[in-house]
């Protein structure tokens, strides 16, 4: 196969359900990135708030774009539809309400052109509803036992998504972490790119108590924690998610969470995190 027959480099997927204003923000951030090598798919879950009209209006004059709107079974059914529609070598997800940082994302794409890994990942800004940025979130595959890679800053080879069956819809909120864990266990290659390529808004479904509960259950399923560790993690999640979304909360969550959990486990003599 000649290089001219290669598929496009990347498809960015955005999923949305009744978040027209968030979808507009997301699309506007992605428009500068689109080209013959960077395609775009918007998967709307049958919204009734004008989301479809927003997407169609903003993308009407663009090539290499696809917009669909139909009922789905949830977040990961929509994300699976998105990557399955793609024709590119890699797939990224910047979902409704979040934003790409165009200049940094363009540099990220330059690294992606090497095609040296199955998963490329970077960093995200964490932001409140009003757009105030609380800091930078960076995670690596070695930390998947307690956290996940920031999915708006992660690009996955489409073939790997297909081989691993995409996202497991058994999980309503944390199937992206489950996918990355399965990929890491299968020794899929990961490559870190030191760019802060997206803004992740903390008011989304993946930042609350239910997400924390599902994440703790996922850690138990993958045998990253025993029963005592699972109980300790639930207590920690309940404490932190009861606080307002402020810089103080994020400092506690991002810098001290693992230390708190480790202390509890040492007290009961059941540290299985190593």
Summarize the structure.
By secondary structure, this protein is an alpha/beta fold. The chain has 9 helices and 9 strands.
Q: Could you explain how this protein is built, in words?
A:
The chain is α/β, with parallel strands linked by helices. It folds into two domains: 203 residues, Spore Coat Polysaccharide Biosynthesis Protein SpsA, Chain A, CATH 3.90.550.10; 50 residues, no CATH class. The protein contains nine helices and nine strands. Strands 1, 2, 3, 4, 5, 6, 7, 8 and 9 form a nine-stranded mixed β-sheet that branches. The radius of gyration is 19 Å and the shape is globular. The termini are far apart. The C terminus is likely disordered.
Key phrases:
Spore Coat Polysaccharide Biosynthesis Protein SpsA, Chain A, 9 strands, disordered C terminus, nine-stranded mixed beta sheet, 9 helices, 274 residues, 2 domains
